[in-house]
Design goal:
The structure holds 2 protein chains of 2 kinds. By secondary structure, chain A is an alpha/beta fold. Chain A contains 11 helices and 11 strands. Chain A folds into 2 domains: 111 residues, 3-Layer(aba) Sandwich (D-Maltodextrin-Binding Protein, domain 2), CATH 3.40.190; 102 residues, D-Maltodextrin-Binding Protein, domain 2. Classes of the chains: A alpha/beta, B mainly alpha.
Chain lengths: 245, 230
């Protein structure tokens, strides 16, 4: 008898909804690099937010497949264009933030120039970056290396990761002596330092487009463009949406 | 044709990683399976749990632990690198990941086969004067061969499909550490990459099908030989 009661209550607990809040949160699918900033923005936004993070490609495909998102924020305009082509967006995407690419090394390393990269890698060191095709930060990094004439020598010395934060972690732990990440990533990790600022001219503009998929999501996209949200993004090392325009 | 050079590179690398991993782990898996099936000793439960751990741990955790143990800054990683065996970010690291992930599956299949052998048959051979080595080679081994084959195929299949631990430990470098699953994942992360992904997925399906068919055929031949010999 008591065993049945225990079993029954267990089933009730498991079957109960995960979140017992009265208000349905606005669900955001966002590029993983936005995590820190979005969490702070969520605290400032009047309605509750439910935040899901992942690679831009994964997020875009899930949204296209019908994921229950109200807003999608990606780290790649290519993916947002693709998503727009799928006919899933409720409104035109808007750029809500921008970023820069930086070369990083473990904390305590000295700044270097582009010509000294091979030397810094030594015989067996690798340069960590996002995967050259799959990860937006890796796509930009490859564009920079090609533009700077470094690609031929560096492409066999890479450690290409499945997301840019994994590349950041490799450098922070010292598994890679150098890495290419976003300025916002470098700022979030105290174990690394920027050793070279990479020129914007060498790669496509790094933009974060956001789009609403439902009327409920439109308010958040508008909020992301307010001075308050833009200041939070700037605090986290992003550039403001209107930078350079 | 959606199968470009990078896709074939990835397939060849996966086949190489899976074959090397399978052959390297075979003897050790057989030994561990033998111990677990036949011997009684302190810590047997612990050994069994350790062997099965990669089956239960999320693959990304296994990959991360490998990176911590064999990374360029870890003592073990540095020692191996000084011996010329680089593992992190090398295809050899993918082999290590494949061995660890496939090991529990190999051991399980072999252990079941060993446990199914009636010790009386071995005892009978021994009473007829056969030395222990010869009992193993001529009685036990033929009886457990189907289990060894099944274990080897499981290990090979696991290695062909391994993704989480591999991408975490050796990254995803085209031509160096980009296995077929990594290449498929990469294609799916590029807008419009569906066709490439599907073509490679079909390739992976064909390889899996051929591997299973070959192992079935081998198992049938072995079974026939055993029953014929009786």
């Amino acid at each position: 008898m008591s065993r049945i009661a225990v079993l029954f209550s267990l089933i009730c607990v498991l079957a109960a909804p995960l979140r017992a809040g009265a208000e349905t949160p606005v669900t955001v699918f966002a590029a993983a690099s936005l995590r820190g900033a979005l969490e702070e923005i969520a605290a400032a936004f009047p309605a509750p937010l439910s935040l899901a993070y992942g690679g831009s490609g994964t997020m875009a495909r899930q949204v296209a497949a019908g994921a229950p998102a109200d807003v999608v924020v990606l780290a790649s305009s290519d993916w947002m264009d693709w998503l727009e082509g799928q006919g899933r967006l409720n409104a035109t995407p808007q750029v809500v933030a921008r970023n820069r690419l930086v070369l990083i090394a473990p904390e305590g390393a000295a700044p270097i120039s582009e010509d000294e990269i091979s030397e810094r890698l030594g015989d067996s060191g690798r340069l960590a970056m996002g995967q050259r095709e799959a990860v937006p930060a890796g796509v930009y990094a490859q564009q920079w290396m090609q533009q700077a004439g470094l690609w031929d020598s560096l492409q066999v010395r890479l450690a290409e990761t499945d997301n840019v934060r994994a590349a950041l972690a490799l450098v922070a732990r010292g598994d890679a002596p150098l890495g290419v990440v976003y300025a916002s990533d470098a700022q979030a990790e105290p174990e690394v330092r920027v050793v070279l600022e990479i020129s914007d001219e060498t790669h496509d503009p790094i933009t974060y487009p956001a789009a609403a998929l439902t009327p409920e999501g439109a308010a958040l996209v508008d909020f992301l463009l307010t001075d308050e949200a833009q200041a939070i993004l700037a605090d986290h090392g992003f550039r403001k949406a209107d930078h350079g325009s | 044709m959606a199968l470009d050079a990078a896709a074939w590179d990835a397939l060849l690398l996966s086949l190489r990683v899976a074959s090397v991993a399978m052959f390297l782990s075979l003897p050790l898996a057989l030994w561990i399976a033998w111990i677990l099936a036949r011997k009684e000793f302190r810590g047997k439960g612990l050994l069994s749990a350790l062997v099965h751990l990669p089956l239960v741990l999320p693959p990304v955790v296994t990959g991360y632990l490998l990176l911590l143990a064999f990374g360029r800054n870890a003592p073990l990683g540095r020692l191996l690198e000084s011996l010329g065996i680089g593992l992190a970010f090398h295809w050899t690291g993918a082999v290590l990941a494949a061995i660890i992930m496939g090991f529990p599956l190999m051991v399980r299949a072999m252990r079941l086969a060993i446990e199914a052998v009636d010790p009386k048959i071995e005892a009978a051979a021994a009473t007829l004067g056969a030395p222990r080595v010869s009992v193993f080679a001529r009685v036990t081994l033929p009886l457990i061969l189907p289990g060894i084959l099944a274990g080897a195929v499981m290990g090979f299949a696991k290695a062909m499909g391994e993704f989480g631990a591999t991408i975490t430990f050796v990254a995803n470098i085209p031509g160096q550490t980009q296995t077929l699953p990594s290449a498929i994942w990469t294609a799916l992360q590029v807008p419009g990459g569906e066709n490439r992904a599907l073509a490679m997925a079909a390739l992976a399906g064909v390889v899996a099908l051929v591997a299973v068919l070959v192992s079935e055929a081998l198992a049938r031949r072995v079974a026939k030989r055993i029953s014929g010999a009786r």
